[in-house]
Fold:
Amino acid sequence: MSGEQPVHDAITLTHRRIFILPTQRGLGMLLLMVILLLIAFVYNNNLAYLLTFLLASVFFITILHTFKSLAGLVVQAGQCKAVFAGEAAGFDIHIHNPNSNERPHCQIKLTKPHSFTLKPYGKITLTLYSTTQKRGWHNAVTVTVFSTYPLGIFYAWSPLRFNANALVYPKPSALELPFPETPSADTNQGVSHKGTDDFYGLQSYQAGDSIKHIHWKAFAKGQGLFSKQYSGASTAAVWLHYDYAAGHNIEERLSQLCRWVIDAERAQIRYGLVLPNLKLMPSNGLNHYQQCLEALALL
Structure:
């Protein structure tokens, strides 16, 4: 199984995929049977023989029932939602019982086990979580379906590898810095974060004024909160430029850009994104927001 390639399709649990071994309780039961058999042999005790063979029959029949608790199940990976670095990525796993046998007390795990019971011909969807550490693609690695039904003396398991990946965005910076005072990233388009019209003065900030027009330099110097006034600010846009992002390395800069994207989207500001290998023209809305975060994740 270690050399098996991850798959997109559903996987049916057959005898080739299910492994089974005694648990600690099962090994204890096996040791007890050996001791009882020795006692029966030494003392020629028929009752000891009877008890030994009775326990042995239960032991071996349990192998079949433990195997059948998993055999035939159909498991398939579903959708994975994007998350920010440090959050837990959720992987949807669909499980289908295609026959008339009930599947009680089954479990599935990625990092933590989840218990489930499937009725005949039943279906269930479980979300398994895996904590992310860095941006980029986060793989589900190996999903394990297992069972110790009915007596807990055997452990049957099936390790499954799915080609399931969750996109991990950079972790947003905790510093809420003002948007960068950058020139237009595309002068031919005539778009900048200040708009296409001329600046003509400052006025005291009023509730409802756009955050992109705040005079951050004056605010940082403790001179008060002012709004910049333009002759036609409706076309204004913010350019979020990699070169103007604070940080000592690429991850810190991407973290700051991620914070700016989130802040700009919340404020409903039109914003563009400039990276070393990509430029996204100013816009806003869910599609643009996701496109920007994806670009940051995969840089």
